[in-house]
Design a protein that fits this description.
The complex is a heterodimer of chains A (about 240) and B (about 400). Chain A has about 240 residues and is an alpha/beta fold. Chain A is about 35% helix and about 25% strand. Chain A is built from seven helices and ten strands. Chain A has helices at about 50-55, 80-90, 105-115, 120-135, 150-160, 180-195, 210; strands at about 5-15, 25-35, 40, 65-70, 70-75, 90-95, 170, 200-205, 215-220, 225-230. The longest helix of chain A has 18 residues, at about 180-195. Chain B is α+β, with helices and mostly antiparallel strands. Chain B has two domains: about 5-55 and about 270-405, no CATH class; about 100-235, no CATH class. Chain B is built from 15 helices and ten strands. Chain B has a six-stranded mixed barrel. In chain B, strand 6 and strand 7 form a beta hairpin. The longest helix of chain B has about 40 residues, at about 265-305. The chains are: A alpha/beta (about 240), B alpha+beta (about 400). The interface between A and B is medium-sized, with 33 and 27 residues.
Chain lengths: ~240, ~400
Amino acid sequence: MADDVLRLEAIRKAYYVGTPVESEVLHGVDLTLGKGEFCALMGPSGSGKSTLLNVIGLLDRPTGGRLFIDGRDTGGLDDRALTRLRGRSIGFVFQYHYLLPAFTALENVVMPMLVDRGHPDDAMRRRAGELLESVGLTPWRDNLAVNMSGGQQQRVAVARALAMNPSLILADEPTGNLDTKAAQGVFDLLREVNRTHGTTVLIVTHNHVLAAQCDRIIDLVDGRIVGDRRPEAATGRA
Amino acid sequence: MTSWLPFEWIAASRFLREGRLQTSFIILGVAIGVGVIVFMSAALAGQQANVIRRVLSAQAHIVLLPPQEVARPLRDPARVAEAAIVQKPYQRLRSIDQWQRIVADVARMGNVTAVSPMASGPMLAVRGEATRAVTVSGVDAGHYFKIVPLPEKIVAGVARLNAEDIVVGTELASDLGVTVGDKLRVVPSVGPGTTLTITGIVDLGSKSANQRNAYVALHTAQALLGLIGGVTSIDLTVPDIYAAETVAQAIGAATGVEADSWIRTNTQLYIAINAQIVANTSIRIFVGLAIAFGIAAVLIVSVTQKSKEIGILRAMGASQGQILRVFLLEGGVLGLAGSLFGSALGAAAIVLWGVLVKNPDGTPLFPLELDPRLFVGAAVLATLTGIAAALAPAVRGARLDPVVAIRG
């Protein structure tokens, strides 16, 4: 239990609570991710994957149930504490990479550290440089984010997610917008991060080929977990 | 990010730079507004100072007069009888009682800069067949010139006032056909007249004043008016002209004489000056509001445009306070930058005014001063306005739900 990076107990999420159009999207989700797990979250559109990811990422509060990050109950935390916990414990990689267009690749990677500490310093820049090198983007470090290819931007996003050395990386269809080769490249990068840093990764994907390369696959349908399995050995790499 | 500035500065400056066109347009807008305020304030202050200087250089700030004579009906408490009609008594020409003591007392007061006793009254200026009614003022040159600088207003001759000398206004001189060195006979309403020599001709700045006024030595006037050793008024100047009425009231209460300030004798002018100040203040307020709404509008658009970035920053761990400060800073920077350009615009307009708008004689119509306080004030005010205007957009940005913001 102590090694659990993430633990969900009967998490519910409803919208328009108290109105005639109240609708529950997550109906009591239980899920535990241990340290170093590399897990895929799959499910059809509208099954509540993104909602679940937002709840886990502390971007959205559940309407019921309990959520533990690094063994810490997040229920009683105020917005400030949640923001701090999110910044330090969770790294995000979004589908549309979402870099800050006004900043260079290096500055984008520095940003989480800058937001956390308030002032920039050389150590941040050094770490950002190392992270960019680890994703193979050193030559592009001073490029504005908008002047890079989709695959490059997503690599920057991965480097950025690693900046605060989080225990959990949440990736919402990180390869959904990339061609097969670039997608595999970004996936391999996440896998490598998972192996070298022991970072727990939860990756939302529709791509069965990539899902098959994960350690564990969670199936979400209509706001309920209907499957929690190991990928079949037969499904190899494409 | 080469500097060591905090996160908020880095983000605010980068966002402003990213929206270059918006940023430069709103800075231009703010600059025009601030420029108008700077120039208008300087113009108004210059014009007011000019009017006041012209008006007050020909008259005292406060004039002390003997108390008005009032009719005191006799009453008999035993028989309840009273005159049905009480006529207002006529005001004789008379001296201020114990004026030497009053002059000494007033001169000792801290808020009075010059004191000059005067004996003046109506007389006829006669030359041959021509006769003009004039007010002859008997003054002590040394004291009086500190209040009304006659030597500066001399157009011919000198401002010398010995026993036999008289200085007359330009219109009076031309009406009587006299010039410097000519003799002029001055006749009071009662008693014998005397013949004086014109030593100087002055231009007092208004035709009627130039027609009516003549200056002689104090004791000459005292002799003509039959007020030996007496004075009819005491002229004063004060350092703060707007406090003249307060000072006058204090002097009146302390000495028992009638004390009239320029504010009371020039009520219309005073009202006009005040009206201008009110008009200027309202223009400033409305221009300031226009600036504030302009900045607010630009920042609201900017918050909407940057909602995705705000969401990303929030997901990365940026607090609501940090987002709030980024946009407040943007507002402050827009206000400050606009006010700097605006001050430059205003200063340029002021300099241009000095070059282009001139009197027929080539002197500036009225001088405009480049008061540094005006620029500092404009900069501080514009910065505060910018921050205040940014408040609503900043709160909106800070309250954005990161989930909604990221989804766009």
